[in-house]
User: Which sequence fits this backbone?
């Protein structure tokens, strides 16, 4: 099933379109410890700010995907894949996944997206009707990471403490660890959103988890 973008009346609400400033993107790219030749993914490219920042910082193998073609600037049309991150089949894994994933409550998701999550065997044990679209992006990003790979995301704070995100937090604990969490409190990072935001850096390290578990 593919979402028909042209039928979405309120893209900002239904797709979680909150765009990142070049300054924030530059700060986040600097948090990575990866060499510039590694495979990089931007899963929600928007207008290409992360893609552009990565290229400016000499990352040479960057793949970016954006569901809404109208956001992609002409200069990036042949650089950014226009498709749905949740259903797109990637042919490789990545060493760095970076970006600003969408935050959309279940009730605001399109019916197509809800049906994808409800009917997919991949998602049925991960997502429920209290989940946020953000959680799906984090789950899939971890799946797409190579061992030792990094996720650097800017997100709202809520999922780090809400009960309905417990499965996601357990999944993250079982697959790696947080190296950095920066909480910005009430400081407003987006002019059109008032959420409390964090920037985090997560390292996939399944071997470390099972090594620790052996000694419990």
Assistant:
């Amino acid at each position: 099933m593919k979402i028909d973008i042209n039928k979405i009346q309120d893209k900002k609400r239904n797709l979680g379109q909150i765009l990142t400033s070049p300054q924030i993107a530059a700060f986040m790219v600097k948090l990575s410890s990866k060499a510039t030749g590694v495979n990089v993914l931007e899963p929600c490219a928007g207008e290409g700010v992360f893609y552009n920042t990565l290229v400016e910082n000499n990352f040479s193998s960057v793949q970016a995907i954006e569901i809404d073609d109208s956001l992609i600037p002409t200069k990036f049309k042949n650089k950014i894949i226009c498709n749905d991150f949740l259903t797109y089949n990637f042919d490789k894994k990545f060493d760095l996944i970076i970006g600003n994933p969408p935050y959309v409550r279940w009730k605001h998701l399109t019916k197509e997206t809800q049906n994808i999550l409800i009917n997919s065997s991949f998602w049925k044990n991960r997502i429920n009707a209290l989940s946020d679209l953000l959680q799906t992006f984090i789950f899939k990003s971890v799946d797409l990471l190579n061992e030792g790979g990094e996720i650097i995301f800017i997100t709202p704070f809520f999922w780090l403490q809400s009960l309905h995100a417990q499965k996601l937090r357990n999944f993250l604990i079982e697959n790696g660890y947080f190296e950095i969490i920066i909480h910005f409190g009430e400081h407003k990072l987006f002019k059109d959103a008032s959420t409390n935001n964090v920037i985090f850096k997560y390292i996939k390290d399944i071997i470390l988890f099972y090594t620790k578990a052996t000694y419990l």
Residues 77 and 172 are 34 Å apart (CA to CA). The chain has seven helices and seven strands.
